[in-house]
Amino acid sequence: MAKEIIGDINLDMLAEFSQAHGISGNEKEVSRVMKKWMTPYADEIFYDNLGSIIGLQKGHKDGVKLMIAGHMDEIGFIVREIDANGFIRMLPVGGWWGHVLPSQSLVVTTNDGKRYQGVVGSSAPHGLSKEVKEKVIAPMDLFLDLGVDNAQEVYDLGIRIGDMITPDTKFTVMNNPNYLMGKAWDDRLCAAMVVDVMRLLKEEDHHCHIYGVGTVQEEVGLRGARTTTHLIHPDIAIALDVTTSMDTPSDQGINGLGKGVVLSVMDAGIIANKNFLKEMEQICEDLGLDINYDMMTVGGTDADNIHKTYDGVVCMTLSIPTRYMHSHRLIIHRKDYWQTVQLMAEFARRLTPQLLQKLKG
């Protein structure tokens, strides 16, 4: 029996977001993808000086400024060293666990945009001691094999110290078509959701001004969140980010794929505005959306910097469960994506100066 496919989701858009290459500090390719898909729904598009992209969809003259942000950068590496035999030592950009890397394919992008595939070196298990077999290799100790004779061949390709290295992963619709696999769902998935909220509201007479934001350098310190918030000076903000899906044999907990909206109560850097949280709960009930909760004691999102800007910004995070976060291949569910987009769109419809004052309490 064929599965019902959930949500009005453009898979071509998701594929472009996922397959674009852009670690922290190198997000230009991703921002161009976001600009392409956001342009039909934005009245203005502009950037901050770090490279974050902002699309404004205007509301009424006295409308509240609503910022919805998803970060564009992905975790990856930069070329740290090229040894005499042509092997590349890598510097991690963002958090990697050594277990997920050996024998995986990575892509080096040169300064002029050329791409070269390599494989992360590994050892055959034959003859390895028990101690070595059970040890997790630190990412700094790994190397990339480009399949060349020596360092000169690497230089002849145009590869230099500081070049970007990213996972080599193709977007895939899984065997149940509601499950989608790709790289960089953290947080390209949410950047795409920003576009979809603006798409749903483009032809509507909403009161608020919607600032759809793709931030940079989240994985290395939430940097784009700070600069874009200073540029926009929003009245209220939603940060979108992924969270660990606790529904696999190795990760067990409450939240999992396909359960719908996840409201983030707190993380290591923010406690959600309580009135905002209650308003989102009410909208979920009104629309018949599922309600789940996320509470992280380690890690954070762009909301951590957004809410502390100026004299404070009413803010919270919406979380999207993701399997295998911070690896080459992540899996998400269409229901979680689509219900969260519906929630944000309805909140934007309801957002007036009066509601903002109520949320400020």
Describe what this molecule looks like in 3D.
The protein is α+β, with helices and mostly antiparallel strands. The chain has ten helices and 19 strands. It has helices at residues 11-19, 28-38, 130-133, 151-156, 185-201, 223-232, 274-287, 303-306, 334-350, 353-360; strands spanning 44-47, 53-57, 65-71, 76-82, 88-93, 105-109, 115-120, 143-145, 164-167, 172-173, 179-182, 209-215, 236-244, 247-248, 251-252, 261-266, 291-295, 314-322, 330-333. It has an eight-stranded mixed β-sheet with strand order 1-2-12-3-13-18-16-17, sandwiched between helices. A six-stranded antiparallel beta barrel has the order 4-5-8-7-6-9. The protein is globular. The model has no long low-confidence stretch (mean pLDDT 96).
How much helix, percentage-wise, in residues?
25-40%
As a whole number of angstroms, the C-alpha radius of gyration is: 21 Å
**Average of per-residue pLDDT values:** 96
What is the number of helices? 10
CATH topology-level fold name of the largest domain: Aminopeptidase
| Main sheet strand line-up | 1-2-12-3-13-18-16-17
- Report the strand count: 19
Quickly list its features:
Elongation Factor Tu (Ef-tu), domain 3, alpha+beta, 2 domains, Aminopeptidase, eight-stranded mixed sheet, globular, 361 residues
Task: Compose a concise summary of this entry.
Helices cover 28% and strands 27% of the residues. It is α+β, with helices and mostly antiparallel strands and 361 residues long.
